[in-house]
Design a protein that fits this description.
Elements lengths: L8 H10 L4 H15 L6 E4 L1 H16 L11 E5 L26 H8 L3 E6 L33 H8 L5 E6 L5 H7 L2 E4 L19 E6 L2 H11 L30 E5 L9 H16 L3 E5 L7 H16 L18 H12 L2 H13 L6 H22 L4 E5 L15 H6 L5 H6 L3 E8 L5 E8 L4 H13 L11
Parallel strand pairs: 2-3, 2-4, 7-8, 7-9
Antiparallel strand pairs: 1-3, 4-6, 5-6, 5-10, 9-11, 10-11
Helix pairs in contact: 2-3, 5-6, 7-15, 9-11, 9-12
């Protein structure tokens, strides 16, 4: 029998419903694997063993009593450390919130619980989502299961590492500029960022509110479809949320091939400046898509050249505003100011925020400062609109866009500490979809000569997550890249 920790979310849900194994057995198997191996990778900040086992036992009792089970009954799920769960700590990877316990649960997690998912624990992340290597966490870095000397990507590096190491079949994260897709690529797993607003942000610790999305990582398109069907939809607690489309899971197998699809290949996202092995893997994906009946279409997104600068102006400006609430008065830790309010706030924020977060707050504050707001933030907003127009033009001639997810494969821990510009350029291929609010997915499709995973990115127009899931599901029927394991 296949080890329970190697099963997909869909297989576990079917097995628990059929009585092939119990939710308690599945949960115990995954927790045991985490406790045995995670000391080498630090994917998790904390596991909720007692809570998880109690949830699993309740699911087993429901089945024994003949009560209906949810579509994710018994499926172990890891939660990024910036989604709040009532009664549990949520720190967003920061010293400032290290002991904060939430009085309520994020909508995305509440919907998973209602569907029968078993929440295993919280996974490591770059502090407040600011980073793409999971090295800025107050709890230390996460390591890539394919090679512990390498970064796993970020900021959802803990979730990506958890999937790659088979600690769980499904991990929930957030994606502001690529924080689900980029680590998915570097860790050889699937990562989906839905259309902006498709999944409620209520209970997600805010970084940049016009960009933040709740996303997920898994090994298969089927598992991501199950997750989307459970979590998507309107939420009164999030005014930016949008209605769910038709469920993706029943439509997943509607396509047997890719005939009739036009796949755009943007020149700006498939050319100079990218790692040659990354480009070669993307060409392999394009060739397989063509063999399965798709038409490849050359296209252009001129504003992509300015996407990184645009993103870092908008994101840091919104971060400076969102993180102003952490002032030592309302949330988190407080440092002594010896009777002076300004001194208390200064000491609290200086000691609580890490260097990268402080840098981005300063950048955002400057971008919004008197006399400079129009010069920096105003121009960035106009460039964002131009990028949206470029995408609209491209989608008039094609159904989906194909590019690499990351300009490079995983690189050594610590190698970019003194080179923030290179680090920010790691987001060059993921921030365009974030700025435009588009759904995008990273899919593993090969590796470098020394075994580092490489992913390709599929981007669709607003609301077309199901198309992305169908395409990647078809490709998974004709390839085995998603089955490659980092650990035995």
């Amino acid at each position: 029998m296949t080890a329970l920790w190697r099963l997909s979310a869909a297989t576990i849900a079917r097995g628990v419903a059929a009585g092939s194994f119990t939710a308690s057995e599945v949960t115990a198997a995954h927790l045991a694997r985490v406790h045995l191996l995670d000391a080498s990778y630090s994917a998790f900040v904390e596991t909720w063993d007692e809570r998880a086992l109690a949830t699993a036992a309740a699911i087993d009792e429901d089945r024994a009593m003949g009560r209906p089970l949810g579509p994710l009954a018994g499926v172990p799920v890891a939660c990024k450390d910036n989604l709040v769960l009532a009664g549990e700590r949520t720190s967003a990877g920061s010293r400032l919130l290290a002991e904060f316990r939430s009085p309520y649960t994020a909508t995305a997690l509440a919907r998973l619980q209602a569907a029968g998912a078993v929440l295993l624990g919280r996974t490591n992340m770059d502090e407040f989502g600011m980073g793409n290597t999971t090295e800025t966490s107050a709890f230390g870095p996460t390591r890539n299961p394919f090679d512990p000397s390498l970064v796993p990507g970020g900021s959802t590096g803990g979730g990506a590492a958890a999937i790659a190491a088979d600690f769980c079949p499904l991990a929930i994260g957030s994606d502001t500029g690529g924080s689900v897709r980029q680590p998915a690529s570097l860790c050889g797993v699937m990562g989906l960022k839905p259309t902006y607003g498709r999944v409620s942000r209520s209970g997600l610790v805010a970084y940049a509110s016009s960009l933040d999305c709740v996303g997920a990582l898994a090994r298969t398109a089927e598992d991501l479809a199950l997750w989307l069907d459970v979590t998507a939809g309107l939420d009164a607690a999030d005014p930016t949320s949008i209605a769910a489309e038709r469920p993706a899971t029943p439509q997943l197998t509607a396509r047997k091939d890719l005939r009739g699809l036009r796949i755009g290949v943007p020149r700006e996202m498939n050319g100079p400046g990218l790692d040659e092995e990354v480009l070669a893997v993307t060409r392999t994906a394009a060739q397989l898509a063509r063999q399965l009946g798709a038409e490849l279409v050359d296209c252009s997104l001129p504003a992509v050249a300015h996407a990184v600068a645009t993103y870092y102006l908008i994101a840091t400006a919104e971060a400076a505003s969102n993180l102003a609430r952490y002032d030592g008065v309302r949330f988190g830790q407080r440092r002594e100011g010896h009777g002076r309010l300004e001194a208390m706030m200064t000491r609290t924020r200086s000691s609580g925020f890490g260097d990268e977060v402080q840098l981005r707050i300063l950048l955002g504050t400057f971008a919004l400062s008197y006399g400079y707001a129009e010069q920096f933030h105003g121009r960035a907003a106009r460039m964002r609109a131009r990028l949206c127009a470029d995408f609209a033009t491209a989608f008039a001639n094609c159904d989906v866009l194909l590019s690499p997810t990351s300009p490079m494969p995983a690189f050594p821990l610590g190698s970019t500490h003194d080179d923030p510009l290179t680090l920010y350029l790691c987001d060059a291929l993921t921030v365009p979809a974030s700025l435009a609010g588009l759904p995008a997915m990273s899919q593993p499709f090969g590796s470098t000569h020394d075994g580092r995973p490489i992913g390709v990115q599929w981007t669709a127009s607003h609301g077309r997550e199901t198309l992305l899931l169908q395409i990647t599901h078809v490709l998974q029927q004709h390839s085995e890249h998603h089955l490659r394991r980092a650990l035995p």
